[in-house]
């Protein structure tokens, strides 16, 4: 028998000679011109892309359509973990539930496979479980050791127990009070949207016809000559961007639409009842200093019994998730009460020295889990996140439920059912060990070659290697010369993130059609810091506009759509609400009377508003800065004022400034550039000393 490493090498060698994926127009032509596919997959999330890859590697003629972008739904809004499910194992043991036990065992096998086939996008992550009661130490230790045992030879690294002092050394921001020790176990972590895209691109490279922004209008049916029954034989599709409609015929149609499963099932048969019970999971992103670089935290029992993860990701910290019933929507919005619930849970586990501020939330999002309905269940938390594969009377194959980690085995099971129901042939699944796009030529030291061969910054090179794997060289080749001594190539989109302009150009080759595709899924800027994403948007639209020949009207539409996406779906709205929700200065009881503080802030404002106009503009700020020998680029200054200019009239009124200072005082807004700049300038006016102002994180 072959070892896994030998299998990986064989697949790696076989993929090197494969042609690149067709561009989007060629893919659309293939969809329209092919007489009949063996399989048409509807849905471009992890499961749908996995089904397309499984089908095409069985030598089945495969098509996939997605009405939005690949991974635009739940698959890009996960906790970013590749895990077996510690929580499910606990339930399996407590309730002697063999089905849950097998689900965990399958997920642990899939975890191992996913880390092997996409080493650039995934890695093991140690997760700490802090223990605050002595009796819990052996209880949790036994549970975690069982997790290791179930993984068997695929255990990433063995779990271990830490003393209180060692736990605090590794996680210094942890609450010391009553801490008795901690247990550390290992799970996998990945870049979910990029992983989803890698699966879809690998399917395309193997010959699948895939198209995003292509929606199913209705299913095509024909009468079976033998039985006289109607059978699904394809779908009427519409190109969302052009409005063009066309038929895609297929022997088998697979419904892999996640939370939208029931809408396609009802297209098949209007009498079908709902099988999906959607649940919303909200996550927030806070600055990286809230967690160590390579150690996550698990809160096994929150105030309402849910599990909260606290994880380092892309040099930031992710905290989540919630689990509440929700309506199905393509544009879920994070609720303020969920954001505050997560913040409160985080406060419970962090040292009182660490002030967890609402203003530190840099982004927030909500993802809809497609849980399979259990009619006996009282709430969504008790639903087993397993999956079902169903073949309707008309032959529509539906895959529903499941989780990110098990996408491959779900796809295999779905194709096995499809092959059996439609007599497609093609042989068994070949996706175990099949290396995904970018994984073939990746190595942990690949980034060094990028620095040496192209003159990229070290941080940028590491980011490109971890995002594109062996394809990072293609991105580097597209990078423009900076005109500086160093780096030689690679202009950043925003200064504090390693995303560069050539990634936008490369994104178009990866089927990015909109600015949202770039900020949310080709790069992850929108998920990491909405303010930084907002600043990068004009440049992104400019680059895409030139490549895709957008008119001025189209560019404006793209900019507005992306801003709306950040505002509603990525939590940017919260920032304005934190400002506008504050109408007066409020102080702690120990502070001096409100009027003293208001006077101080008013005096600070008037040092900039010399003409007593009642507002300040960039000209006023520039004048003061010149007096203290500070220079700030005019565009940057416009951005700084725009953050506070609530009525968007190009100036900051006294009332707006007081609202800002009150929000800063309450911790609702953190790192406001205008607040810091004006405070520093006021102090420097007295001292007449030089001062530098760097761009801050900018909370939402």
UniProtKB/TrEMBL annotation:
<dbReference type="Pfam" id="PF16901">
    <property type="entry name" value="DAO_C"/>
</dbReference>
<comment type="similarity">
    <text>Belongs to the FAD-dependent glycerol-3-phosphate dehydrogenase family.</text>
</comment>
<feature type="domain" description="EF-hand">
    <location>
        <begin position="632"/>
        <end position="667"/>
    </location>
</feature>
<comment type="function">
    <text>Calcium-responsive mitochondrial glycerol-3-phosphate dehydrogenase which seems to be a key component of the pancreatic beta-cell glucose-sensing device.</text>
</comment>
<protein>
    <recommendedName>
        <fullName>Glycerol-3-phosphate dehydrogenase, mitochondrial</fullName>
        <ecNumber>1.1.5.3</ecNumber>
    </recommendedName>
</protein>
<keyword id="KW-0677">Repeat</keyword>
<dbReference type="InterPro" id="IPR000447">
    <property type="entry name" value="G3P_DH_FAD-dep"/>
</dbReference>
<keyword id="KW-0479">Metal-binding</keyword>
<dbReference type="Pfam" id="PF13499">
    <property type="entry name" value="EF-hand_7"/>
</dbReference>
<dbReference type="GO" id="GO:0005509">
    <property type="term" value="F:calcium ion binding"/>
</dbReference>
<keyword id="KW-0285">Flavoprotein</keyword>
<dbReference type="InterPro" id="IPR006076">
    <property type="entry name" value="FAD-dep_OxRdtase"/>
</dbReference>
<dbReference type="InterPro" id="IPR038299">
    <property type="entry name" value="DAO_C_sf"/>
</dbReference>
<dbReference type="GO" id="GO:0005739">
    <property type="term" value="C:mitochondrion"/>
</dbReference>
<dbReference type="InterPro" id="IPR011992">
    <property type="entry name" value="EF-hand-dom_pair"/>
</dbReference>
<dbReference type="GO" id="GO:0004368">
    <property type="term" value="F:glycerol-3-phosphate dehydrogenase (quinone) activity"/>
</dbReference>
<keyword id="KW-0560">Oxidoreductase</keyword>
<dbReference type="InterPro" id="IPR036188">
    <property type="entry name" value="FAD/NAD-bd_sf"/>
</dbReference>
<dbReference type="InterPro" id="IPR018247">
    <property type="entry name" value="EF_Hand_1_Ca_BS"/>
</dbReference>
<feature type="domain" description="EF-hand">
    <location>
        <begin position="596"/>
        <end position="631"/>
    </location>
</feature>
<keyword id="KW-0496">Mitochondrion</keyword>
<keyword id="KW-0809">Transit peptide</keyword>
<dbReference type="GO" id="GO:0006072">
    <property type="term" value="P:glycerol-3-phosphate metabolic process"/>
</dbReference>
<dbReference type="InterPro" id="IPR031656">
    <property type="entry name" value="DAO_C"/>
</dbReference>
<dbReference type="Pfam" id="PF01266">
    <property type="entry name" value="DAO"/>
</dbReference>
<keyword id="KW-0106">Calcium</keyword>
<keyword id="KW-0274">FAD</keyword>
<comment type="pathway">
    <text>Polyol metabolism; glycerol degradation.</text>
</comment>
<dbReference type="InterPro" id="IPR002048">
    <property type="entry name" value="EF_hand_dom"/>
</dbReference>
């Amino acid at each position: 028998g072959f070892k896994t490493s030998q299998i990986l090498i064989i697949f790696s060698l076989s993929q090197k000679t494969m042609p690149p994926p067709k561009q989007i127009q060629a893919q659309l032509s293939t969809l329209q011109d092919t007489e009949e596919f063996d399989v048409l997959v509807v849905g471009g999330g992890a499961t749908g892309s996995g089904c397309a890859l499984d089908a095409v590697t069985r030598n089945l003629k495969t098509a996939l359509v997605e009405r939005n972008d690949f991974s635009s739904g739940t698959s890009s809004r996960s906790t970013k973990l590749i895990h077996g499910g510690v929580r499910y194992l606990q339930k399996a043991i407590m309730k002697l539930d063999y089905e849950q036990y097998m689900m965990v065992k399958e997920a642990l096998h899939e975890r191992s496979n996913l880390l092997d086939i996409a080493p650039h996008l995934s890695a093991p992550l140690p997760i700490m479980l802090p223990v605050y009661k002595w009796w819990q130490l052996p209880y949790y230790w036994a549970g975690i050791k069982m997790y290791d045992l179930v993984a068997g030879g695929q255990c990433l690294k063995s779990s271990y127990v830490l003393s209180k002092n060692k736990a605090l050394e590794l996680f210094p921001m942890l609450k010391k009070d009553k801490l008795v020790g901690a247990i550390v176990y290992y799970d996998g972590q990945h870049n979910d949207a990029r992983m989803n895209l890698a699966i879809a691109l690998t399917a395309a490279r193997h010959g699948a016809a895939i198209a995003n922004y292509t929606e199913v209008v209705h299913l095509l049916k024909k009468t079976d000559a033998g039985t006289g029954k109607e059978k699904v034989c394809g779908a009427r599709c519409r190109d969302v961007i052009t409005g063009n409609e066309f038929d895609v015929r297929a022997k088998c149609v697979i419904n892999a639409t996640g939370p939208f499963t029931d809408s396609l099932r009802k297209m098949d048969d209007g009498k079908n009842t709902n099988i999906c019970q959607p649940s919303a999971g909200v996550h927030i992103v806070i600055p990286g200093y809230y967690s160590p670089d390579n150690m996550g935290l698990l809160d096994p029992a929150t105030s309402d019994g849910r599990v909260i993860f606290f994880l380092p990701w892309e040099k930031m910290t992710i905290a989540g998730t919630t689990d509440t019933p929700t309506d199905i929507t393509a544009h879920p919005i994070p609720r303020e009460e969920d954001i505050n619930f997560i913040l409160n849970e985080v406060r419970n586990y962090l040292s009182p020295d660490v002030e967890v501020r609402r203003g530190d939330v840099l982004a927030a999002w909500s993802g809809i889990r497609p849980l399979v309905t259990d009619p006996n269940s009282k709430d969504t938390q008790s639903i087993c996140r397993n999956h079902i594969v169903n073949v309707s009377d008309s032959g529509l194959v539906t895959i529903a439920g499941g989780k990110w980690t098990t996408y491959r085995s779900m796809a295999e099971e779905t194709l096995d059912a499809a092959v059996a129901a439609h007599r497609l042939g093609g042989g068994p699944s070949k996706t175990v060990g099949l290396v995904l796009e970018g994984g073939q030529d990746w190595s942990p030291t690949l980034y060094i070659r990028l620095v040496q061969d192209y003159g990229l910054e070290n941080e940028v090179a590491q980011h490109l290697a971890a995002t594109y794997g062996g394809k990072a060289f293609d991105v580097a080749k597209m990078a423009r010369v900076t005109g500086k001594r160093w780096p030689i190539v690679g202009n950043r989109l925003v200064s504090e993130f390693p995303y560069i302009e050539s990634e936008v150009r490369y994104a178009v080759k990866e089927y990015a059609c909109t600015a949202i595709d770039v900020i949310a899924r080709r790069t992850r800027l929108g998920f990491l810091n909405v303010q930084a994403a907002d600043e990068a948007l004009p440049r992104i639209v400019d680059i895409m506009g030139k490549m895709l020949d957008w008119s001025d009207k189209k560019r404006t539409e793209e900019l507005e759509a992306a801003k709306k996406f950040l505002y509603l779906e990525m939590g940017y709205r919260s920032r304005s609400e934190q400002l506008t929700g504050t109408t007066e200065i409020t102080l702690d009881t120990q502070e001096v009377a409100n009027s003293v503080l208001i006077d101080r802030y008013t005096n600070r404002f008037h040092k900039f508003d010399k003409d007593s106009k009642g507002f300040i503009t960039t000209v006023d700020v520039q004048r003061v800065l010149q007096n203290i020998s500070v220079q700030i680029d005019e565009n940057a200054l416009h951005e700084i004022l725009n953050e506070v200019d609530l009525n968007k009239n190009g100036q900051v009124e006294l009332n707006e400034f007081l609202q800002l200072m009150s929000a800063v005082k309450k911790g609702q807004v953190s790192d406001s550039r205008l607040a810091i700049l004006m405070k520093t300038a006021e102090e420097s006016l007295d001292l007449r000393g030089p001062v530098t102002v760097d761009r801050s994180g900018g909370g939402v």
